[in-house]
Design goal:
Length: about 180
């Protein structure tokens, strides 16, 4: 004897499938959004995937003292331009990477060719000054009546605090001199 009451067929209509599909789509979108946020938080917490670890600065743990970097610019008197750093000084911890922008403006209706050189005072600190990106020692052709942004990315080697000749330095002056390179 066959019992029909034991087997029941559920009828699922298209509205129910459509509603479930929309809910799954919304849920997946929210999940994808939240998983990227969770990934970033996790990487930041543990210093993974090239994201710096927050909350710890190894240089601070080593008791590195802050150093003030002063920016000075000089321009050859024959150049019709304005050359300056966007800031006058910055205070940093050795090992910290800093980016500053210098601005060069040609105030004349003619092209000119220039080159920037730099000097570090006190000189003994220069071996600990490391440039990652610099515009110095590059001949630049500056079009008439234009402005240029010249980035400088640098850091001070943390070993500056362990050298007997430099461990008492609290201030470094970085001077850029813009020279006229008439004959290029």
């Amino acid at each position: 004897m066959y019992k029909e009451s034991m087997i029941k067929m559920f009828s699922i209509n298209s509205d129910l499938i459509y509603g479930l599909s929309i809910m799954m789509f919304i849920f997946m979108g929210i999940f994808c959004y939240l998983i990227t946020k969770l990934y970033r938080i996790t990487c930041t917490k543990f210093g993974l995937a090239g994201i710096p670890k927050k909350g710890t600065n190894i240089n601070m743990k080593l008791n590195h003292k802050p150093i003030q970097i002063e920016f000075i610019t000089q321009v050859d008197k024959t150049l019709p331009c304005e050359f300056k750093c966007g800031i006058t000084h910055v205070t940093l911890i050795p090992g910290e990477i800093i980016k500053v922008n210098y601005k060069l403006k040609n105030k004349n209706n003619n092209y000119f060719v220039s080159e920037a050189i730099y000097n570090i005072t006190p000189f003994i600190a220069s071996k600990y000054f490391n440039k990652l990106q610099c515009f110095c020692y590059n001949k630049m052709i500056v079009p008439p009546c234009t402005s240029m942004v010249l980035p400088l990315v640098f850091y001070i080697d943390p070993n500056i605090d362990f050298d007997d000749g430099t461990k008492h330095i609290e201030r470094i002056t970085l001077t850029y001199i813009l020279n006229n390179m008439e004959k290029w």
